[in-house]
Amino acid sequence: METTQFIEITAGSRGIQGHEVSLDDELRALLTAQVLVRDLGRRVAAHSSSPVRAALFARAAEDAHRTAAHMQLLAADSVRHTLAHELPETTFDEIAAIYQNPTKYLSGNADLPPDPRTVPTGRLVFKDTTDFLTGFLHIGYFEARERVRAIDRLLPGTDIHGVPMPPQFPTLAKDLADGAADPHAIGTAARKLEKLTPQISQLPDPGPARERFEGQVAESVRREDPRTTAKLLSGIQTTLDQGNKDISEEVLRSRCGFFFRGVMGGLGEFLLRTRPADTEAILAMFASTDNPRSNAGNRDGLLSQARGVSGHADTRGPARVRDEAVNTESNTTESNSGTTTESSTTESSKFPDFLVEPSTGEPLTDPETIRNLSLDADGIGNLLNLFNDNGTNIIGTAAQLSTLNATTYGVDGLTPPQRHLQGLINLIRSAGAPSSGKKTIGMPSPKTLIIATLDELRGLAKTNGITSRGHKLSAAELRQALCNGSVIPMIMNGKSRILDLGRDQRLFPDYMREAILAIYGGCIYPNCTVPAEHCEIDHFDEWESGGSTEINSGGPFCGNHHHAKHAGLITVVRDEDGLFSVILPKFLDPEQKPRRNTYWRSRPQNPPLF
């Protein structure tokens, strides 16, 4: 059956002589086909006991998945170029109601709401296409953002002058449209090829090279498993690195950054890439901490600070140790030259196990093997590039790298990486207390907030408090944090009364802001990922209507959702535990229940106010 015949059967002529197929007829046919595919899949799965038919069923289901993935991109493109995110809230409510119960619409007895005839005014429900996909389709923000970005990579379009433009990667785009490969693998390959574009553009003849690389990757996506394709992309990266003698500023800048990889095995994991000048600054810091004759490398001080993190707190606290080191250093002239780490450390130092070839016990030297060990999911850069500039090692020999990365403890009880880390942590903590009283441009003033109950402080609970970002602490870490001047403890369920400012002051002062942000963790809008540092504090009872400035009357919002609240798009209510929840628009939540943002806090982690 052809598509046109199916549409005619599904929509019919509507009793109109010479009726032409409309967009509504096509939508009705699409919704009907979705119901049929869903029902047929369940029927075949329930009735089939034949392995031959099961194999064909699996093939058909996979093709349906690939078709649906392509349709998702087409729909996102349609939303973007029609500016569907600018529709008013009432229209979204009507669309949601029709989709929930499409019977009248499918039979032709109900119509969709009309398109707006004027430019929207006032506060928009969704600020852009990504926001629309996230809210209206109930998908994650990063998934929505990736769909929008994939439109230009894998769909044809037009430029700002209305001139038709092909997709950025036409071969992969055709495979996606034809269902020739897994959509996720195609999207991943296109994303990685896009990151390689600046380097490919530096080649003498970039056009054919771009086509050749895309063809190789597309063939791998169609025929091979994802790991083989990832290895191919890694090989292309290596080829480009070796072929480009002078890496462009754009490429270098795109690789730099401090990447947080998450908390794994109880440890925070980061990946740091820097330009040579910044690398030199970090290595200079390492040299200072490695010099036992300097205050920065004071062995007793560093050891006490490092042990404090693991449970043996220095009674002076890291902040006081830092201040004493600064005072001592101002009256002392010292030199880092001619001083190295202890010979016992150098002689026994070795590479970490994951950088050693198991068969020989020697350090890895193959660039491709080392690249595959990179924590970067996109495979850009490698562990050697942390200290390389266009293939030239700026540190020196492998022995010097071995010394820097040694896992053997020195006479001070620390390995060089532990000593370097402690120096970096001390620098970060010192930024929170500028001696001049004025903050420096580009220098953050980080503060750590610890949320704990009285029972946790007394050691009577099984838990030991959490940080403002939801990381659980050990008993030793809690004790150490309370000794640290840069840590602010928030004690909940105690007998102390929370102070308020009543009507004397409209804006929330810093100490109230810190308490409110510690309670909620970030924006209170459900699934919003904007962190506490970027939030504004909103009065539950509006200040203009007699509301007061007090901790139990403030809730954090990002700028976007703060405006949505004042525009009447969302409603804030207080739960039984005294904390705030949000009632979403009806088209987003037909049940109209108070919802809590669990991205930052789960309910057990939210300390009650009352």
Explain what you see.
- By secondary structure, the protein is mainly alpha-helical.
- The protein is built from 23 helices and 15 strands.
- It has helices spanning 3-11, 23-47, 51-82, 89-100, 103-106, 129-137, 141-154, 170-178, 183-200, 206-223, 226-243, 249-255, 276-290, 299-310, 317-330, 343-348, 367-371, 398-404, 416-430, 454-457, 475-482, 510-520, 559-566, and strands spanning 157-158, 164-165, 257-264, 267-273, 388-389, 392-393, 448-453, 466-467, 487-492, 500-502, 536-539, 549-550, 554-557, 571-574, 580-583.
- The strands form seven sheets. The protein has a three-stranded mixed beta sheet, with helices on both faces. A two-stranded antiparallel ribbon has the order 1-2.
- Helix 8 (170-178) packs antiparallel against helix 9 and helix 10 runs antiparallel to helix 11 (226-243).
- It is globular, with a radius of gyration of 30 Å.
Helix proportion of residues, in percent?
Answer: 40-55%
Distance between the termini: 66 Å
- The number of helices is 23
Low-confidence stretches: 309-352, 373-397, 494-503
Could you report the average pLDDT, rounded to the nearest whole number? 75
Strand order of the largest sheet: 8-7-9
Set out the fold topology:
Blueprint: H1 3-11, H2 23-47, H3 51-82, H4 89-100, H5 103-106, H6 129-137, H7 141-154, E1 157-158, E2 164-165, H8 170-178, H9 183-200, H10 206-223, H11 226-243, H12 249-255, E3 257-264, E4 267-273, H13 276-290, H14 299-310, H15 317-330, H16 343-348, H17 367-371, E5 388-389, E6 392-393, H18 398-404, H19 416-430, E7 448-453, H20 454-457, E8 466-467, H21 475-482, E9 487-492, E10 500-502, H22 510-520, E11 536-539, E12 549-550, E13 554-557, H23 559-566, E14 571-574, E15 580-583
Parallel strand pairs: 7-9
Antiparallel strand pairs: 1-2, 3-4, 5-6, 7-8, 10-12, 11-13, 14-15
